[in-house]
Amino acid sequence: MLKGNVRMEAKDKRVVVITGGSRGIGRAIALRFAEEKPKVIIVHYDPDEKASDETLELLGKKKIEAVSRKLDVSSWADVDAFFKEVIDHFGKVDVLVNNAGITRDTLLMRMNEKDWDTVIQVNLKSVFNCTQAVIRAMMKQRYGRIVNISSVVGQMGNPGQANYSASKAGIMGFTKTVAREAAPRGITVNAVAPGFIDTEMTAVLPEKVRESFVRQIPLGRMGAPEDVAEAVYWLCSEPAGYITGQVIHVNGGMYM
Ligand SMILES: NC(=O)c1ccc[n+]([C@@H]2O[C@H](COP(=O)([O-])OP(=O)(O)OC[C@H]3O[C@@H](n4cnc5c(N)ncnc54)[C@H](O)[C@@H]3O)[C@@H](O)[C@H]2O)c1
Predict the structure, then answer these.
(1) Interacting residues of 125 by C-beta distance below 8 A, sequence separation 6+
(2) Which residue's CA lies nearest to atom 4 of ligand 1?
(3) Rg for the chain (alpha carbons), in Å?
(4) Which of 97, 201, 228 to mutate to test the pocket of ligand 1 (most atoms within 8 A of CB)?
């Protein structure tokens, strides 16, 4: 069941789907869309609805119509069924932000098959699943904006993140290919590669590790989810309509 406060009459508003939108970077992206009052659909896979309900409340306060759905984006069949329902219900998808992601960090020597498979499926296969589920409808309407959330470690590498960095590098290659395939139909596909951002994902790291990361950042601080959201929103805006197949880094200068 889609859950939320959407009324169905405003057909001209953009329909925006954000995976991993319950908290962190995904929540900030949803809120960044506020000024244009779109219809927002948030996907998450949290054990409970606490964070997604909070996000819906924050969006509601900004008068953004929003719904949420708990869904495992690594399941092709579930994603396919979900987007069929979304397109049935809303008539279209204009913006897809593939933001859901997880880490299972450990050195390669200790990494088991499950750590590898789970991260590749949730971070990379999900991007294939969701993009494939919307691309036909976007091509038909000759308009679409897709932004995939990669990571600086997809280019730099990072000890303990062989699975994660491979998934994020995979997103960059996928982005460029789909950008070429979809460009003739007015669809742009880009990636945003955040650096070290203050969210639940990085909150679990020991203080010493966090400090050592911050020392590598020329701007001298962790990024905020809003820093990433700004780039995502801009890539989805009309003035950025000539930009496709790019990876935009938002990392305080950590990687240049
Ligand atoms: N925080 C950082 O420093 C950082 C840096 C670079 C890239 N990123 C990327 O940004 C994205 C968002 O990260 P964040 O820091 O906000 O993380 P977060 O842990 O705060 O939020 C992750 C979101 O993804 C959702 N999710 C996880 N598994 C899912 C699944 N199987 N199906 C559907 N949804 C699922 C969660 O429910 C949650 O909404 C991720 O792709 C992450 O890899 C984060």
Answers:
(1) 74, 76
(2) 197
(3) 17
(4) 201
| pLDDT tens string 14-65 | 999 999 999 999 999 999 998 899 999 999 999 999 999 999 999 999 999 9
User: Is the CB of 25 inside a 6 Å radius of any atom of ligand 1?
Assistant: yes
Q: What are the angstrom distances between the C-alpha of 122 and each of 71, 89, 92, 114, 222?
A: 11, 26, 24, 12, 25
Q: What share of the chain is helix, strand, coil (3-state, %, to 5)?
A: 50, 15, 35
Look up tokens 């590598």; give the residue. 216
* CATH homologous superfamily of 3-250: NAD(P)-binding Rossmann-like Domain (3.40.50.720)
pLDDT 10s digits, 103-135: 999 999 999 999 999 999 999 999 999 999 999
